[in-house]
Amino acid sequence: MAGGFLGKTLAAVSLSVALASVTVKSLGSCSVAACRNSLSSCRFHVNSNIMSGFNGTKENSHNKARTSPYPGSKVQRSQVPNDKVDWLVEWHDYNPVEYTAVSVLAGPQWADPQITESNFSPKFNEKDGQVERKSQNGLYEVKNGRPRNPAGRTGLVGRGLLGRWGPNHAADPIITRWKRDRSGNKITHPISGKNILQFVAIKRKDCGEWAIPGGMVDPGEKISATLKREFGEEALNSLQKSSAEKRELQEKLQKLFNQEHLVIYKGYVDDPRNTDNAWMETEAVNYHDETGEIMDNLTLEAGDDAGKVKWMDISDKLKLYASHAQFIKSVAEKRDAHWSKDSETGCPG
């Protein structure tokens, strides 16, 4: 009873701050196991940092995770109306489609076995060997041996294209510079009067949408290493470089990634690959080249999962993959750069 009540309470917490930086912290000295068994022995503090421009409604926070067909397939999700997304809303007739891609079922190194396999006993909500099964958004509920998406129902169970049951951790490096004229002067927007910021964007091969470079965190890998590796692979085509070229590239990247940076977002991502039992989480970090000198010495070249790569002006006209536009908007606000023709970039009152 206590475990079920805890799960419902945590689901309510996560849903109220979906697409927010949410941290569920134990204020006592209790362990995760103790928290599972008793709510009274542990108190939780929720620190939510709603991303700018996001109003917290279910329609916006959990929309792409309910779209059909499922990416890379013809699978149609069961339709989930807005008022039935929340796990706390009883829905006895809920009958989601079961789907896990063949590429995942083939058992690659980056994927978990099926939950029914006798030799597979994942430790959800914990560091499971080298695999991080803790969520950036705190504890998530596990029901009938399967983790539950903390943002709610998606109309599909299984893992889809995702390798891990529960959170699948990614890292998104947002590399920016100021847009400049031929004389090297910063270009300001004629209406907002703010300097125009640019970021490195890639065009994904899988869906054709423009996005922030990024990818999955390998087991045991530090986020900082993932950020640098993914940018090199997707925006600089490092995988196809010679050993000497790779060394030179790493030296230049080291200057960029060793400087001060801004953590833009940590947590759940509204992603079309999400299911009821597997979902994307990311850490988006902004590395800014103030003078432009570092990036001027690096030639953009699409590689790995990227079909194209280019510098893209930041504005509210951007149409990007998953929740990436929200991340970019947050960067513009933090850098006091142009976002929209309105003079203010903050949330509407």
Automatic annotation (TrEMBL):
Known EC number: 3.6.1.13
Source organism (scientific name): Bos indicus x Bos taurus
Record text on subunit structure and interactions: Monomer. Interacts with GLOD4.
Molecular functions (GO terms): ADP-ribose diphosphatase activity
Reactions performed catalytically: ADP-D-ribose + H2O = D-ribose 5-phosphate + AMP + 2 H(+)
Gene from which this protein is expressed: NUDT9
Entry function: Hydrolyzes ADP-ribose (ADPR) to AMP and ribose 5'-phosphate.
Pfam families recorded: NUDIX, NUDT9_N
Protein name: ADP-ribose pyrophosphatase, mitochondrial
Annotated InterPro entries: NUDIX_hydrolase-like_dom_sf, NUDIX_hydrolase_dom, NUDT9
Span of domain Nudix hydrolase: 178-334
Coiled-coil regions listed in the entry: 232-259
Family of this protein: Belongs to the Nudix hydrolase family. NudF subfamily.
GO cellular component, one term: cell junction
Origin: domain of life: Eukaryota
Ranges where the record places region Disordered: 55-79
A Gene Ontology BP annotation from the UniProt entry: ADP catabolic process
Keyword list, A-Z: Coiled coil, Signal
Presence of the UniProt keyword Coiled coil in the record: yes
Signal peptide from the UniProt entry: 1-20
